[in-house]
Design brief:
Layout (H helix, E strand, L loop, with lengths): L2 H8 L21 H10 L5 E2 L11 H12 L12 H15 L9 E4 L1 H13 L5 E6 L5 H6 L3 E6 L10 H7 L4 E7 L11 H14 L2 E5 L25 E6 L12 E4 L2 H14 L5 H12 L3 H22 L14 E2 L10 H12 L1 E2 L1 E2 L11 E4 L4 H18 L2
Parallel strand pairs: 1-10, 3-4, 3-5, 5-6, 6-7
Antiparallel strand pairs: 2-8, 7-8, 9-12, 11-12
Helix pairs in contact: 3-10, 4-10, 7-8, 11-13, 12-13
Length: 404
């Protein structure tokens, strides 16, 4: 807040604007990840192992497609639902890779990243008092749920089970107020992949109780050791109960392009399209043309990035487990490790602050991802080998000093 505003506020010339802001706005928390990044950004020389985005440049052929789109005049308003040819390419990709059959005219919506799909799903589905089941630890969906007066119901995923949720625990958490189950597989922050058998059991619960599933699948291509990603929307009887969120951000190193897409029953797509006109009009035309180029090309660039992530995964896994007091299971997917730091007797926030302030290495506190995330930190290996090795060295030195 500027000094001039403070002066007038203190002298009674202006009222405190905050009292006029709608109360629902205060149900949205500042992102803990962003708070941590801001703190790290104030310290010179920090190695950031917290940032959740690829360190690769967007592949050149995708950038060239965007340049050509500019030359071709793609500078006007795009269709609210997305360009027809892009939706058709998405439909083909879904059929081939995800075993999901979707009508490009009525069941696919091009969004501003996967985050818009998540926001819109909760907006269109959750009413005051509705319960939404989320996995804990898991990605932070709490603010979106509370913004629309829903109630998050966390279901624990345990390290002993490789952070894979037990369908029996989801079944036990279901009540007559349950409106939605949110699944994120491959999972941020744990790197867990929910096996097909787990998804089949969750799908059975959803069908029996007529509960919708929001399936958040941004890391669908970043898999290791032959793991298989299954879209729950492809399972028998789940098409009409599933809203799936996908994005180009992770697979194609396109985080800043802000292109994702929803796959959902027509009724949801219609509402998303209707609201789009009142929110952002549509996803940037040039970015959509770049996304089309990404889909139409072979997946060679994706495979090369995944190979690099796999090498880094092994470095981070071996390096962390070599540090006294830290244990870390090997992630099956994504570019995150979720090491256990509970032996130090500190909160994850306290350890993260200590490491960034005193040893210039940034990690993300596990408690950001739910109560069950306490005792862990999230470390991204979407950084080059040299930074990973130096970061591990700084963590090792930092935690060693805690035992002195």
């Amino acid at each position: 807040m500027c000094k001039v505003y403070n002066y007038y506020l203190q002298h009674g010339v202006l009222m405190d604007i905050q009292q006029f802001i709608a109360k629902r706005s205060f149900e949205v928390d500042w992102s803990g990840i962003r708070v941590m990044f801001a703190f790290a950004g104030e310290i010179p020389g920090v190695i950031n192992l917290g940032i959740g985005q690829p360190d690769f440049d967007t592949p050149a052929f995708i950038c060239e497609a965007a340049k050509k789109a500019l030359d071709d005049g793609y500078t006007r308003y795009p269709p609210a639902k997305g360009f027809q040819d892009l939706r058709e390419a998405i439909a083909e990709k879904l059929k081939t890779e995800n075993k999901v059959i979707a009508d490009p005219d009525t069941e696919i919506f091009v969004s501003v990243g996967a985050m818009q799909v998540i926001f819109n799903t909760v907006l269109h589905l959750v009413e005051p008092g509705d319960e939404v089941i989320v996995v804990d630890p898991g990605y932070d969906y709490y603010s979106q749920i509370r913004l629309f007066s829903g109630r998050p119901v966390p279901v624990a995923a345990y390290e002993k089970n490789l952070f894979k949720v037990d369908p029996a625990d989801i079944k036990a958490a279901v009540s007559n107020k349950t409106k939605l189950i949110i699944l994120n597989s491959p999972s941020n922050p744990t790197g867990a992949v929910f096996d097909e058998d787990i998804l089949i059991q969750i799908a059975q619960i959803a069908r029996e109780r007529n509960i919708f599933v929001l399936s958040d699948e941004p890391y669908e291509h970043i898999l290791f050791d032959g793991k298989k990603h299954v879209s729950i929307g492809s399972l028998d009887g789940m098409k009409e109960l599933t809203i799936s969120a996908f994005t180009f951000s992770k697979s194609y190193a396109m985080t800043g392009w802000r292109v994702g897409y929803a796959v959902a029953p027509k009724a949801f797509i219609d509402e998303m399209e209707k609201l789009q006109e009142h929110m952002v009009s549509g996803v940037t035309a040039v970015a959509q043309r770049a996304a089309l180029a990404a889909l139409q090309a072979p997946r060679d660039c994706v495979h090369e990035m995944v190979k690099a992530y796999d090498k880094r995964r092994k470095i981070i896994h071996e390096g962390l487990n070599a540090i006294d007091g830290i244990s870390c299971i090997q992630p099956e997917s994504t570019f995150y490790a979720f090491p256990n730091i509970s032996s130090f007797g500190m909160t994850s926030w306290d350890l993260a602050r200590y490491l960034v302030k005193d040893h210039k290495v940034a990690v993300v506190p596990g408690s950001i991802f739910g109560k069950r995330g306490e005792g862990y930190v999230r470390i991204s290996f979407a950084a080059d080998t040299e930074k990973l090795q130096e970061g591990i060295s700084r963590i090792k030195k930092g935690v060693a000093n805690l035992r002195l």
